[in-house]
Amino acid sequence: LRILALHGPNLNLLGTREPGHYGTTTLADINQKLIDMGDSLGLEITTFQSNHEGELVDRIQQAVSDHIDGIVINPAAYTHTSVALRDALLATSIPFIEVHLSNIHRREEFRHRSMLVDAATGVVAGFGATSYTLALTGLNDFLRTNQQ
Ligand code: DQA
């Protein structure tokens, strides 16, 4: 199975960015962990980060021609604003898991709303870098039991 891991704006700064909220693990570390986990689960992992909404939309559209089976996405700040990312994900109808390092529900009010979450297969938030590996475990189980 092919999995796309998408990372939104400012996540390229992980490691030094607000460590109180996001920890000290870098994005490269997170991606490597997903790739290693993918190896043991028989998943081919592709990773992509962008600070630009349109580039994330393009990558989601491309997932169809790339035969991606599932998406793990941390939309970062676009979580709270982006109709475009929502529409792109709905257009592909590829199952996706929404991921956040921080628990967005214990933070500012404006972070409580997600434009994507009601279309997601699942959501993981609040476990730091571990949120991603939990999401990949969940997505793997979901795809293997729902896609024979
Ligand atoms: C985030 C939470 C968002 O509110 C924030 O804008 C981010 C990161 C998280 O992973 O906790 O950039 O998605």
UniProtKB/TrEMBL annotation:
Its EC number is 4.2.1.10. PROSITE patterns: DEHYDROQUINASE_II. It comes from the Bacteria. It catalyses: 3-dehydroquinate = 3-dehydroshikimate + H2O. Substrate binds at N74, H80, D87, L101, S102, R111. GO terms for biological process: amino acid biosynthetic process; aromatic amino acid family biosynthetic process; chorismate biosynthetic process; quinate catabolic process. GO terms for molecular function: 3-dehydroquinate dehydratase activity. The active site is at Y22 (proton acceptor), H100 (proton donor). Catalyzes a trans-dehydration via an enolate intermediate. Belongs to the type-II 3-dehydroquinase family. This is 3-dehydroquinate dehydratase. It comes from Mariprofundus micogutta.
